[in-house]
Specification:
The chain is α/β, with parallel strands linked by helices. The chain is built from 10 helices and 20 strands. Helix 6 links the parallel strand 14 and strand 15. The chain is globular.
Length: 391
């Protein structure tokens, strides 16, 4: 017998609008033997079929995989992954000068709970739900089938994202092949050392690719400060495009070593690394810059932290705006999902008013096309940014 959850009356509307989440508070009845990762049918209050998805004993109780009553099997994953990879081909991301991209972006590709990143013939899987972790063999088989000779190794890195599921033994490791790290891959002609085993996330922050490329257009002949630099993505793109000098700043000595290694890999010069807390360092910069990049980690991951996060973004941006050269450009970002683009923009404007600088917004930035947003899941838009011209 198929496992099921049945929703309270008036709780089916969002599912009927194809929103991919069912929250625990919407569930009236459920099969008695439900386990994390089980495939369940979602029924309305009158027991009519609505969708099928992965169950998890959490706030998001069901992540919907299909609004048709189809089997969630190897063929299902094959077709979904074929569709996702074809989008990246249509976006022309598989190029001689580019071998870094996101292949699967959760809800945006109809596979909530699954992230797959691609680094020069290596696919790195990260599961954010137990259901996806239990399906990881199907996922790996489909990736191998679709990518063929374009993949030499597939690595599962889910222990961090599923660490709270202590009833399961979560193991990272290769599902196909093997590849030593760091592994060199290209982003728009810039070489990066990628380490999916020891690095943050899956080894790199792919979602800033197009924004890094945009920085290149502003960098020629400019003095650039890249804060929260991690492995130096913005720094390397600025140098490739003719920046006169780039300073990379991060509180982590390990991150600065990654940046220095990438600078050496590309044989770039005119660069200096700084190990310091960016929030503190930027209060009193020892020199002025033509371009400052503010790309901090998420200041708020939950709504109850939103006010504190807004104040943090305001202080950080105010300190940068107060000290940047007249005629300078501020690239400023937020990846906090609970702070939308309108609130972030207003926060940056408030910072400019506070320090008495006249500013103009010349670019509005967001996540790239290989991080697609489902039309039925606006929460998938998490990265927002501005390029601000400072008089």
């Amino acid at each position: 017998m198929k496992k099921q959850v049945q929703l309270y009356k008036n709780k089916a509307e969002s599912v009927m609008r194809k929103h991919p989440w069912v929250f625990s508070g919407a569930i009236d009845l459920a099969s008695e033997d439900l386990q994390d990762g089980d495939v369940v049918e979602v029924l309305d209050s009158k027991a009519n079929f609505l969708a099928v998805g992965h169950f998890q004993n959490a706030t998001i109780a069901v992540r919907i995989l299909s609004f048709d009553n189809k089997a969630i099997d190897a063929n299902f994953f094959q077709k979904k992954i074929e569709n996702a990879v074809q989008l990246r081909r249509n976006l022309n991301l598989f190029r001689p000068d580019n071998s870094i991209m996101r292949l699967i972006h959760g809800e945006g590709d109809g596979l909530p709970g699954l992230i797959v990143d691609y680094y020069n013939k290596v696919a790195v899987i990260q599961c954010h739900s137990v259901g996806m972790y239990r399906a990881v063999e199907h996922i790996a088989q489909a990736l191998h089938s679709v990518l063929k000779e374009e993949v030499i190794a597939i690595y599962n890195k889910s222990s961090d994202t599923l660490a709270h599921k202590d009833q399961m033994e979560i193991k990272d490791g290769y599902l196909l092949g093997n590849c030593p790290t760091p592994h060199v891959a290209l982003e728009n002609g810039v070489k990066f050392n990628i380490d999916w085993i020891n690095g943050q996330k899956t080894g790199f922050f792919i979602d800033q690719r197009e924004n890094r490329a945009l920085l290149g257009k502003y960098a020629k002949g400019k003095k650039v400060l890249n804060t929260f630099c991690y492995s130096g993505g913005f720094s390397l793109t600025a140098l490739k495009n003719g920046a006169s000098l780039v300073h990379s700043l991060d509180s982590s000595a390990k991150a600065i070593q990654l940046t220095d290694d990438n600078i050496a890999l590309n044989q770039f010069e005119s660069h200096q690394s700084i190990v310091a807390d960016a929030v503190e360092y930027i209060k009193n910069l020892p020199e002025q810059y033509d371009v400052i990049v503010l790309d901090p980690p998420a200041f708020a991951k939950h709504r109850d932290k939103r006010h504190k996060a807004i104040q943090g973004y305001k202080r950080l941006n105010a300190n940068a705006l107060r000290q940047i050269k007249p005629g300078g450009f501020l690239f400023t970002f937020s990846c906090s999902q609970v702070i939308d683009k309108y609130l972030f923009t207003n926060t940056v404007i408030a910072a400019a008013i506070e320090v008495g600088r006249n500013v103009r917004i010349v670019e509005q930035l967001h996540q790239p096309a290989d991080h697609p947003i489902s039309a039925y899941h606006p929460e998938g838009e998490y990265l927002k940014g501005l390029v601000v011209y400072v008089d």
